[in-house]
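Sync notes, pocket subgroup
Present: LS, DG
LS reminded everyone that the earlier model was apo-only. Rerun requested with flavin mononucleotide included. Inputs:
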Amino acid sequence: MQTELCKILNIQYPIIQGGMAWVATAELAAAVSNAGGLGIIAAGNAPGEVVEGEIIKAKKLTDKTFGVNVMLLSPFVEEVMEIVHKHKVPVVTTGAGNPGKYIKKLKEIGTKIVPVVPSVALAKRMETLGVDAVIVEGTEAGGHIGELTTFALVPQVANEIEIPVIAAGGIADGRGFLAALALGAKGVQMGTRFICSTECTVHDNYKEMVLKAKDRDAVVTARSTGHPVRVLKNKFTKDFLKLEKNSISPEEIEELGVGKLRIAVIDGDVENGSVMAGQIAAMVKEIKSCKEIIDEVINEAATELKRLKALNKEE
Ligand code: FMN
């Protein structure tokens, strides 16, 4: 199953592994790229030298296309962009803002730029600025989220822009993949599904918690600050939501989240840490290799497509 996105990004299948701060390391990105998708290293709030180390590692682990996700609110954004430029990283995805001022320089070295957008207006603005595709992320997703659902937002954006739309948020299998294409997307980005891959280096406790998650376990914290985050329910979210209700200031609330993803991902403290994951976590039941995950999505999509075609013949 291929779309025009495969040609633009130089990949076999239109499946992108979402940039995930602390989670999306060189090991994960290289495994996804080797399996035919697009692996992404997440820069998060890391300094340039750390990101450079990951890029160098990924280049040793794969000769396929991979990308870097640059968090535009990072205090190190300028040096990370310099590193990405220096290493001529083939694809840059961006989170948390407008990458406008970096586009010209990245285009000069042939890097494809793919921002994450939460609305039609931002998608249209990005197209005008000359980006190569947009990732349209619905509120089902893990991590920092927007308001609109994938199901409602993807077709609205697809109607309004010419460049390819990549659907993200709530996709973890072949049915979700196919539904995204039906809504007008040319590919998908999955985050939560890849957390539970063999090659993902997060602490086992984190993977375990995703595997055990039920449909209503992915809750939203920090809505009151205007920067909501979707995470799995635990002691941290319980305390956090209680404090949020007690109307402490947005600055104090933001402060509560600092360093919490790291302690969950690295130390495995999934009680006091922030276990970011999306609503689709409840459908992730097994740890598999990135190749198995991607092959399964593609094969299931092909089977489902046949089933849907048969419905048409029955009329
Ligand atoms: N998106 C970004 O653009 N930058 C990030 O640093 C980032 N960190 C994330 C960390 C975690 C643990 C998770 C689960 C998601 C993160 N995301 C980030 C969003 C993912 O890239 C992706 O769009 C999202 O996970 C897709 O939805 P899904 O979780 O339903 O698959």
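DG: The pocket of flavin mononucleotide is lined by residues 18-21, 23, 42, 44, 69, 71, 95, 116, 137, 140-143, 168-171, 189-193, 276-278, 280 (CB under 6 Å).
LS: Residues 204-280 form one domain.
Action: DG to write up.
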